[in-house]
From TrEMBL:
Entries under Pfam families matching the protein: DUF4232
Domain DUF4232: 103-230
Coiled coil: none
Listed InterPro entries: DUF4232 (IPR025326)
Organism: Streptomyces varsoviensis
Protein name: DUF4232 domain-containing protein
Record's compositionally biased regions (Gly residues): 75-84
Amino acid sequence: MSSATLVARRARRAAAVSLVAVAALSLSACGNDKDDNGAAANGSSSAASAGASGPDEASGSHSGTGSGSESAGTSAGGGGGHGKGTAAAPASNLSPRSASDRCAAADMSLRVGDADAGAGNIHYPLVFTNTGKKTCSLGGYPGVSLLAGDGQQVGSPAKREGGKGSVVRLAPGKSAYAALRTINDGLKDAPCWKTGKIVKAYAPGSKDAMTARTSGLRVCGDTFTVGALQPGTGPQG
């Protein structure tokens, strides 16, 4: 084989080796580009994800704070509202100047006045009199039930009727009354109750029961109501 032929072969081999090396370098560069692009893409995705979750978390925190405040407000408002309704307002829905100013059952007497009939209605004044030594206040509706001679309750407690009125100031010896009302027999299909012998009453704002004898209060037509307290001993008193 001639020298020229050997030189040509060696040149072709060197060229082939160079081509292989170039191809390998190209593949390596492509791989690196792909990794870099992938990392960049992942980085963008993570950033986008972080950007999306940021407002959500802030919104969630805001919503949580809002909900918590709203719940607390509702609870406090509800509780506060309910507490005021129960504690601040006596059964009368009217407030004397102070709790100590309210007439106490121990410093009052109770009696049932004479019946006043007219237009199918029968009214009985339920009279509270201040027997104490100090002026006191009453206002609103007393709680009233009718009892038989043996103390058993007759029918249902009286229902409130009419406006709540105003606070009545009672000097020693002075009275206020609430009108008890029923109707004549036969005005309604409902039968009359057993005749009552005792009226049991709670003065507005008081938990102490008072009783008074009655000559015979009979409720008819399932109609038994009580009005708010007014000054005096009754329309005719």
